[in-house]
Predict the structure.
Amino acid sequence: MEFWTPERPDGQEPDVRFAFILTPAFTILPLAGFADAVRHSSDEADRSRQIFCHWEVLGHDLAPVHSSTGMAITPWKTYAEAGAYDYIVVVGGLIDQLEGVHPDTYEFLRQAHAKGTKLVGLCTGSFALARTGLLNGRRAAIHAHHRPEFMRMFPDVVPVENELYVSEGDILTCPGGTAAIDLAVEILIEHCGRSRGMKGLTALVVDEHRSAHEVGRLPYQDLEECGNWRVEQAIRIMRQKLREPDTTEHLAEMLGSTVRQLNRVFLQHAKATPQEVWRDMRLQHARWRLMNSKRTITQISYECGFSDSSHFSRWFKTKFGETPKRYREQRLAKQR
């Protein structure tokens, strides 16, 4: 079977080489986002030639791999035919289908890593990388929904939920979705320069490149699935009322509970009172807004339910060690 692989001009070596490995029932969005960012950085305009970047799709055989949508992609080469790469990108998907990953895949990843190739896990690709044993003692970016299962399966790996991607030197992980674009751009900037690395953002209709800490994950999302209905419902109410926080008494009343019951279950599951969790949710949201919007600090303090900006600043400094103004200035400076 032949595949369309745009030719590179004679004598032109790419700045970076990628190989993609797709697990059974892989998710299309992170693969498409990552691959398209690479494609746009690889050539001028929208010609898609593999000039500055090179990419291939690998498999233990050449049988089509079906995505979680049922759409399939056929590998271009087997592991035996693989070339040299700077990065091998493992695209995960449905967890219950990971048992279908061929043992040769794990051995290929171990051997590539031993030769100095960097590994990337997109979506539940982090699960596949963890199965190689190479993530033991390291941090890995995990979607909040997958955290309990990841911790049960890989107790020697540190799950991270509040970052868009995690770089542990030669192993990078990302929880999937559009965060895969940000990770790809970060890699492309390193190898191709900032201008070329960010070239695809406009074509992909992405406003700006987000750094790892600018996560859009909802704070305390894991508590929405903790198994206690009072906590789960309370967190959902809190999220809806970030701008207008209420008393614990009224929150308990809305849940048909007592303040004592609500405090007890929150201390059990969140190790904090409802009011402490509520305030922390608002501070986490405010921090995200500082980095991802042009709203003033006064506007953000109001929109996150604080009575005034000075009250907001005091709580923010207590939580994050810096004033909101200082926090924004320092991190925006790092992006320039």
User: Anything to note?
Assistant: The longest helix spans residues 274-292.
